Amino acid sequence: MSLLQGAARRGAGLLGRESWLVRRLRPAYESLLDWSSNGQGIPWSINGVEYRVDAGYRHYLGQNYDAPVAAFLRERVRRGAVCLDVGANVGVYVLQFAHWSGLGGHVHAFEPNPAARSILHRHILINDLKERVTVVPTAIGASNGEAVLYAAGADGMSRMGAPNSAIADEVQPLTVPLMTLDHYCQRERLSPDWLMIDIEGFEIAALEGARRLIESRGRSLGIIVEMHPNVWASAQTSRARAKALLADLRLKAIPLTGQSDPLHDYGLVHLEHE
Q1: By three-state DSSP, how is residue 85 classified?
Q2: Is residue 264 within 8 Å of residue 228, measured between CB atoms?
Q3: What does the alpha-carbon distance between residue 12 and residue 43 come to, in Å, rounded to a whole number?
Q4: Which of 85, 116, 103, 95 is nearest to 43 (CA)?
Q5: Distance (Å, rounded) from C-alpha 20 to C-alpha 155?
Q6: For residues 18-37, b (16+ Cβ closer than 10 Å) or e, as one string?
Q7: Are strands 106-110 and 133-136 parallel, antiparallel or unpaired?
Q8: Residue 64 has what DSSP assignment?
Q9: CA distances from 172 to 74, 230, 232 (A)
């Protein structure tokens, strides 16, 4: 299979990865990869660790995906850790959290988009992680109820509130269940060690719905958040609201991906307890 992938990479490099011919041949190539793996996914390295992934979604799981963030977490996530991945999509962090936390750890993966969740389940299955990952088919926010998710297949830019402008022509509105992290952790009697949030602008709402969790766990809870200030307005969030919430929770946003202002620039942050 590595010979096939190597030949394909060289051909795509010569022709251009987004050339008309490469785009036309891609579905057949991915079907061939899937066939050659007996339906068990292809070997795929993510930040230096090999997993098995669905060939058609391999580019959702970049081989150097958020490398500085992965390095930060790799040094800190301990064996046996309980990790919450909010906005799990097809599982790039689910696979890594499961690897870092080891056999005694557990990952709770929140993903309301049925298309992404289908691929997430496949990645869990082909990596033999069924006993170590719980998939929760729910959106996370500041309250319990329902929300409208504007989804475009399994695209990670699907979001609530309003369609993402980058995929606006492809989205379909889906009504999905909405839950707070406080409600979920109380219901499941969880005391997580790590919280990862990437929900396209609704990250402040998710933190508001996790007040009790954050206050009760204190420094025992590591928090990583992908900040999307450019779309906060459509999530009824503002810089002032975000700043006030972090101050109230005694959290300081430390940039992990080079942003100069973590409450203005897009990027991932570590919310450090003051």
Answers
A1: strand
A2: no
A3: 19
A4: 95
A5: 22
A6: eeeebeebeeebbeebbeeb
A7: parallel
A8: T
A9: 36, 22, 21
Q: Which amino acid is at 50?
A: E
- Global pTM value: 0.88
- What are the phi and psi torsion angles at 170 (to 5°)? -110, -10
Q: Write out pLDDT tens, residues 31-75.
A: 666 656 667 899 999 999 999 999 889 889 999 999 999 999 999
Q: Are 196 and 222 in contact (CB under 8 A)?
A: no
Please measure the distance between the N-terminal and C-terminal CA atoms of the chain and give it in whole angstroms: 50
pLDDT, tens digit (0-9, with 9 covering 90-100), for 198-235 = 999 999 999 999 999 999 999 999 999 999 999 999 99
> Residue 162's Cα: distance from chain center in Å?
19
The two structure tokens encoding residue 72? 């930060």
Question: How many alpha carbons lie under 13 Å from residue 105 in its C-beta half-sphere?
Answer: 23
Say which residues have a Cβ less than 8 Å from residue 134's Cβ, sequence separation at least 6: 106, 107, 108, 109
Question: What's the distance, CA 155 to chain centroid?
Answer: 11
Residue type, 244: A
**What is the C-alpha to C-alpha distance for residues 195 and 57, in angstroms, rounded to an integer?**
25
CA-CA distance, 118 to 112, in Å (whole number)?
11
Nearest to 92 by CA among 130, 128, 54: 54
Helix (H) / strand (E) element for 270: namely strand 267-273
